[in-house]
Amino acid sequence: MPCVGLIVNDGKELAVETAITLQSRFEQAGFDVVRASSSGGMVGFANPDQHLRMLGYNACVPEGFDTSMAFAIVLGGDGTVLSAARQTAPVQVPILTINTGHLGFLAEAYLADLDRAFELLLNNQWTIEERCTLVVSVLRGEQRRWEALSLNEMALHREPLTSMCHFEVAIGHHAPVDISADGVILSTPTGSTAYALSAGGPVITPDCPVLQLAPIAPHSLASRALVFSDQEPVTVFPATPDRLMMVVDGSAGCYVWPEDRVLIRRSDHPVRFVRLADHEFFQVLRNKLGWGLPHVAKPDRP
User: Fold this and answer.
1) What separation, in Å, do the N-terminal and C-terminal C-alpha atoms of the chain show?
2) Which residues are tagged catalytic?
């Protein structure tokens, strides 16, 4: 009997109600259903005194999810999708994202499309688009102190009420560079429309095999976003005596101390998104972020 998954934001009543409906419909169609809470992928911010996370990113995979699962449906907003990415990418389960939140930039369908989406899934009329992910590790010497999977970005920045920071960044075999700024962002193409965009970085189409380094409020006219091959591992050394805060995809993170370093590398486990129709990236940019809309002059007032 085929198996499908449901990953639900249990904090949203609409998502929970939709999950109950979908579970009933899939079971009537002859599927086994495994349900999980999206909270399992929200690693959270580690305790500043005990931020060891040595299990690795596979620890987020829910019980019952494995490579034999046909697909999983994610019910929630963009934060839920980021969480579900950590839960499914290590076991290669494709996810169909149905938005029950607000912006829904990562959503493939909306609740109004639920009946149509269900029929397309049953008739195997769907494709898969892979999006690269990052493995973000905090190392002290040879010890791995913290690790998580990232679909969007890693942001390393100063704490409130502290001064500007210095970061030494080594990209692959290239010479290290020094960046003076409030922080640095290392993002995937998927994350180029998130925090990196707000920091002045370019939008990168998802099919480009690159990463982006963007400084946050840099103290130099020469410090601008840099795009480079995603085959290059990146190491960030905090060249400052104060501890820093690292946040991954907005729902995971820890403190980084002067004796630590952050290693970011492309993961071997991409997120596999279910697409029900041709996924036109420029159309998504237009609809969600207003990119490319024609300029129309406002009429004169009478």
Assistant:
1) 68
2) 78
Domains annotated for the chain, with CATH where assigned, are 3-131+270-289 (3.40.50.10330), 134-266 (2.60.200.30)
pLDDT digits (tens, 9 = 90+) for 19-51: 999 999 999 999 999 999 999 998 888 765 555
Give the position of tokens 């499309």.
113
**Contact present, 96 and 71 (Cβ < 8 Å):** yes
**CA proximity to 53, closest of 143, 132, 155:** 143
C-alpha to C-alpha distance for 180 and 195, rounded to whole angstroms:
18
How far apart (Å, rounded) are the C-alpha atoms in residues 73 and 161? 42
Reported as a single tens digit per residue, the pLDDT across 182-211 is 999 999 999 999 999 999 999 999 999 999
Among 246, 158, 146, 153, residue whose Cα is nearest residue 195: 153
Non-local CB neighbours of 83 within 8 Å, separated by 6+ positions: 7, 38, 39, 40, 41, 42, 251
Check: CB of residue 146 under 8 Å from CB of residue 137. yes
Residue 102: CB atoms within 10 A of its CB come to: 8
CA pair distance 94, 4, nearest whole angstrom: 10
Lowest mean pLDDT among 138-147, 257-266, 279-288: 279-288
Query: In 10 A of CB 277, how many CB atoms?
Result: 12
Residues 6+ apart with CB under 8 A from 39: 10, 83
